[in-house]
Amino acid sequence: MKNLLLILLVVPIVCFGQTQTQATQEDVQTVGVKKQTVVLASSTKIITPKTVDFKDYSHLALVTINNLGASTKGWYRIYEERLSASPLVVLNPFKVDEKKAIYDHNFLKTVENPKYLYLDYYRSKGGGNDPPETRINKIIVRDYKQKVLYSVEHKNGTIKEALSPFINF
After folding, report:
1. What distance in Å separates the CA atoms of residue 103 and residue 77, rounded to the nearest whole number?
2. Mean pLDDT on 57-85
3. Which of 35, 70, 144, 166 has the most crowded CB, counting CB atoms within 10 A?
């Protein structure tokens, strides 16, 4: 009877000990596995070709910056920095008038100046048949009369590549 009690007490402890050891070994094995990155083909679709020379303008107003559904002060600052090498003066609505920008990020489009270009930048996930890692960058540039001067869509391209027409012209 004592032997039976001893066996009944020892067997569950040994079983639990083995299970925990196996779980620990599995965790160590999965930590060493690296994620494989998928290289997606990039493409550029020019919707409205550039019809004007950007050298004729003095400022680039960031009207809309929408990065994967977020449009915050931080994103405007990041894109202002990315465009800092541009010969155009980049206007960030939060630096022009922070109180106004808090309530309306797009207020710069109401500032009508013939020397300004107005930039709308949208970054989103791919849709429909695209792989889940697909990113689409869409840029629309307007003049002060809201006429579209340039519009392009980059699929899986870099942000640097998408913004290059405003830096290298």
Report:
1. 17
2. 86
3. 166
